[in-house]
Amino acid sequence: MRTWLTFACLAALGGVSLSSCPIEGRWWEAEALGKALGLSGQPPRSFRHSHGPDRKAPEYAYATVYSSGVRRSAVVLNDGAVLTFEMGSGPADRPSVKVRNCAALEQGPIESLDLAGARLANRVVLFHADARSATSAVSFDVAGPAKLKFVIVGLQVGTWEIWHKGFLVDAGGAVEPDSGVLSFEGAPGGYFLRRIG
């Protein structure tokens, strides 16, 4: 499956806040995330959002909406990047990822057949490359700094095993109801994620 990935640098190097990004206000709240997805007014029933891992000082925020057979998702990072994803449900539809790198973070590609996304500095953001949530195993390979923070979205609710370079590193990765997000920290390399319950 081929993914269309667009990188856009919106600011020069230096201290840049999210106020210079297209998202305004409290970037982790539902209203701002809805705007990132192009919604106006009351969001539809299919709208879901979350932020974490610490709700008092979020590092990322995520939102998704299903409408007319299309899934649109957005992840906002607290250090100045917005990633958006769109995927239709037709057999010819291809996933599309756009990166608004507001803080000019170092970027790197991700290799995966199941996921689409990018590495920005020490953050890795991946979207399941389908209009439905992933219910079976997914894998990817990433290079970068020694310690990375991962946000994987579009996963089925439940417990996921996290394998790194062939070794089980976490047997209890949790994807909470209404979020579809798995977040964890790890080293660069090959990953295999499997839902066990």
Describe this structure in words.
The chain is globular. The strands form three sheets. It has a six-stranded mixed β-sheet, with helices on one face. A five-stranded mixed β-sheet has the order 7-9-10-12-15, with no helix packed on it. It is 4% helix and 49% strand. Mean pLDDT is 81; it is low at 1-20. The relative contact order is 0.16. It has one helix and 16 strands. The chain is mainly beta and 197 residues long. It has one domain (4-195): Immunoglobulin-like (Sandwich), CATH 2.60.40.
Amount of beta strand: over 45%
Helix content: under 10%
Order of helices and strands, N to C? EHEEEEEEEEEEEEEEE
Mean pLDDT over the full residue set: 81
Total number of strands: 16
Q: Can you tell me the CATH class? A: Mainly Beta
Structural class: mainly beta
Tell me the radius of gyration. Answer: 16 Å
Low-confidence stretches: 1-20
For the record, the count of structural domains works out to 1
Total DSSP helices: 1
Distance between the termini: 27 Å
